[in-house]
From TrEMBL, chain B:
UniProt xrefs under InterPro entries: ArsA/GET3_ATPase-like, ATPase_ArsA/GET3, P-loop_NTPase
Transmembrane segments: none
Species name: Microtetraspora malaysiensis
Designated name of the protein: ArsA-related P-loop ATPase
Superkingdom, natural source: Bacteria
ArsA/GET3 Anion-transporting ATPase-like domain mapped to chain residues: 13-169
Pfam families documented for this protein: ArsA_ATPase
């Protein structure tokens, strides 16, 4: 009756020098960032040179890794043990880069961690692709300013861009990225394409037309159909918005090619054999459903799935005693009015066994649909992670 | 319509937010059921295209259309609407500009796609705008169509930005139709007819995010509602047992005797082994209970009404929703 999934061998993935990127994805609140950090620490302590890119870490977790600033710079995490048990990380060491050479052969690993600053990342792309005058025009445009700080896909897009940058830098032999808490967990895959669709769209050509016509008043040279659309746009958006947008689009025109090209490169990087996707879930219906969806989507995109991590599983040290027997025994004791303590403890145990059974069923649903996807479990813990020891413990549980 | 004395009398738009994994959609659905109880009409709105409402009520995916999905206890109807930003945009064009036929042309041109995905804040204005319209809508005789609207809103980390529509479109439009529309929406969202409720668990991270979210809302001048503490486990054990467990002073011998009396253990070795395993469970439970107590006290600092919803043994199925709705009513949240 019980369907068993293959076990996810975390250490094999972390130790494999060919693994260069690990992407942790899953729905919100399942412990993605914690999983990413725990994997990073474990890989570093097994000798690899690792950077963990987090998008929006909880305060506590950021503190656990010694991150205090959202500044786009990888910071060395102190207190990482080398494979022989000694601690590395020197006092006062700041952003150190270029730490090559870590490998699972027993040499000293390192862990860096960074938080994504999406606006800064976007600004840097503009600066890299446009001449200074054009870059200035773009960066000061009000439309760009709100696009770069609040467009719902910008964070996803910039996370992927940053991943591409880290990979190209060659400074780390393993990059672990935690995906943004998206509306849909898949937004980070769709954002580049969505942006591309916009940039290639007819709307852009409408907006570009006046600029190409030498800056004469908007839309005069357009044909009737375009004219109507432009009229509608003015009516709905307002003339000022349209003007800002036109300026923005014409200034951005120069950097479009570079934009698309990079998006495509990153996409290919995610499909490459050195990439491993780890889906993170909790044993709840919604999270498991999202995980299933993810498995299917990654297959469609031909992106390499390593396996599923299920966080916060409830287990009982007295699993041999079933919920039904436990409840019956409690009722028996209660009706006799004896052994109050045992009766109460048996009730507690029955509740825990029921919860464990429900979680087991959720996992079985997943496994019947995706029998080949390896799974690793992390038991529920009373407290959140506060420090490296906590992350280390999770890493051990992941690998066990 | 029955009049009840609840904590949120006069509130017509209930916005439900919460950290991912706290059961925000489930609580929104249960709140809609609770508000509809006794013959009212409530609209439950979903905005993130996840079809979470359909899944909870065990229905096929919802279209962009208000349709009845459930009957509340004691009569009363829950309607649901899955807002699709593109459809909302076309609605908006038709309603305010009579541009219905233009919609198709705009869609083809990529304008609608642009407006709903790229233009900063516009998507949120469209979604909150559609919801506000449902809140304000009156029928032919001038009566409100819905007694209340419940919105399954974005997660806590994004809620203030999402609702602070005027601010959001400020970069896009300082004047003009978009700005006017945003101001109209803001009028509804920031009014005393709106309450933004938070769903939390008794765990550190959701509790911290709830407090942060409440502080942000206050700062933005948006109306803070109640805190729904979800998935609360019953405290099965008396206080003295919990205290003993935390100090590792549980009476294993007494426990083993009880197990034997209940016929659960063969010999005394067996009884001791099971007692030990169960005692470990009690210790875990005691630690967790202590942590929960601390988190409960932290949430109390927010100074807003709190409601506790039980952990559903079988997960959030339809029967569970009615159970939660009952708990919501019993505590005066609806």
């Amino acid at each position: 009756m019980t369907k068993t999934a293959p076990a996810l061998d975390i250490d094999a993935i972390l130790d494999d020098e060919n693994t260069r990127i690990i992407v942790c994805c899953g729905s919100g609140g399942v412990g993605k960032t914690t999983t990413a950090a725990a994997l990073g620490l474990r890989a570093a302590e097994r000798g690899r040179s690792v950077v963990v890119l987090t998008v929006d870490p909880a305060k506590r977790l950021a503190q656990a890794m010694g991150l205090t600033e959202l500044d786009n710079i990888p910071r060395l995490v102190k207190g990482v043990r080398s494979p022989d048990g000694a601690k590395s990380g020197h006092d006062g060491s700041q952003a150190s880069t270029g730490s090559r050479g870590g490998s699972p052969d027993g040499s000293r690993g390192e862990l860096h961690a960074m938080m994504l600053d999406m606006k800064r990342t976007f600004d840097e792309i503009i600066e890299a692709h446009a001449d200074p005058e054009r870059a200035r025009q773009i960066l000061t445009n009000p439309f760009y300013q709100s696009l770069s700080s609040s467009f719902s896909g910008t964070q996803e897009y910039m996370a992927m861009e940053k991943l591409g940058q880290l990979r190209r830098s060659g400074d780390w032999d393993l990059i672990i990225v935690d995906t943004p808490p998206s509306r849909s967990a898949l937004d980070f895959l769709d954002a580049p394409e969505r942006l591309g669709r916009f940039l290639d769209g007819r709307l852009i050509r409408i907006l570009m037309a006046p600029a190409k016509a030498g800056g004469r008043s908007a839309f005069k040279l357009l044909n009737a159909g375009f004219g109507i659309v432009a009229g509608a746009l003015t009516k709905v958006l307002g003339a000022q918005v349209l003007k800002d947008l036109q300026m923005f689009v014409s200034a951005l025109d120069a950097v479009f090619g570079g934009f698309r090209q990079r998006a495509e490169q990153t996409y290919k990087l995610l499909q490459a054999p050195g990439t491993a996707f780890v889906i993170v879930a909790t044993p709840e219906r919604d999270a498991i459903r999202e995980a299933s969806y993810f498995v299917e989507r990654l297959a469609e995109e031909r992106m390499p799935l390593a396996g599923l991590v299920i966080n916060r599983m409830h287990r009982s040290p007295a699993a041999a005693l079933s919920a039904a027997r436990s409840t019956a025994a409690a009722e028996d004791l209660e009706s006799r009015g004896e052994h109050d303590l045992a009766a109460a403890v048996l009730r507690l145990h029955a509740g825990r066994m029921q919860l464990a059974a429900r979680e087991q069923r959720e996992q079985e649903h997943f496994t019947s649909a995706h029998p080949t996807v390896p799974i690793a479990h992390v038991p529920a813990m009373a407290e959140d992670v506060h420090d490296l020891d906590g992350l280390r413990e999770i890493g051990e549980l992941l690998a066990s | 319509m029955s009049s009840r004395d609840t904590d949120w009398d006069g509130v017509r738009l209930h916005v439900v937010t919460g950290k991912g994994g706290t059961g925000k959609t489930t609580v929104a659905a249960a709140l809609a059921l609770a508000l509809a109880a006794g013959g009212r009409k409530v609209l439950l709105v979903e905005i993130e295209g996840r079809q979470g409402i359909a899944q909870i009520f065990d229905l096929p995916p919802l279209p962009y259309e208000e349709r009845k999905i459930a009957v509340a206890p004691g009569g009363g109807d829950v309607y649901a609407l899955a807002i699709d930003p593109e459809a909302a945009m076309l609605d908006y064009l038709e309603m305010f500009y009579g541009l219905k036929r233009m919609g198709k042309a705009l869609t083809r041109m990529g304008v609608v796609d642009f407006a709903t995905t790229i233009a900063p804040g516009l998507r949120d204005v469209l979604v909150t705008g559609k919801t506000s319209e449902a809140v304000r809508r009156r029928d032919g005789s001038g009566r409100r169509v819905y007694d209340a609207v419940v919105m399954d809103a974005p997660p806590t980390g994004r809620i203030t930005r999402f609702l602070n529509v005027t601010q959001e479109v400020a970069g896009l439009a300082r004047v003009g139709p978009v700005k006017n529309h945003a101001d109209l929406v803001r009028g509804v969202v920031a009014s005393p007819e709106t309450a933004v409720h938070f769903v939390s668990l008794l765990e550190e991270m959701p509790v911290q995010e709830t407090l942060d979210g409440i502080a942000e809302l206050h700062e933005a001048g948006l109306p803070v509602g109640g805190i729904f503490i979800n998935m609360v486990r019953p405290v099965d054990l008396p206080k003295d047992v919990l205290d003993a467990a935390v100090k590792n002073r549980l009476d294993h011998a007494e426990l083993a005797l009880g197990l034997k009396a209940a016929g659960l253990a063969g010999g005394s070795d067996d009884a001791t082994a099971i007692a030990q395993a169960l005692a470990q469970e009690v210790v875990d439970h005691a630690h967790r209970t202590r942590l929960e107590k601390r988190e409960r006290a932290t949430l109390a600092k927010a100074g807003t009404p709190r409601y506790e919803l039980p952990l559903l043994a079988d997960g959030a199925d339809l029967a569970g929703l009615y159970e939660l709705a009952e708990a919501i009513r019993a505590q005066g949240a609806a």
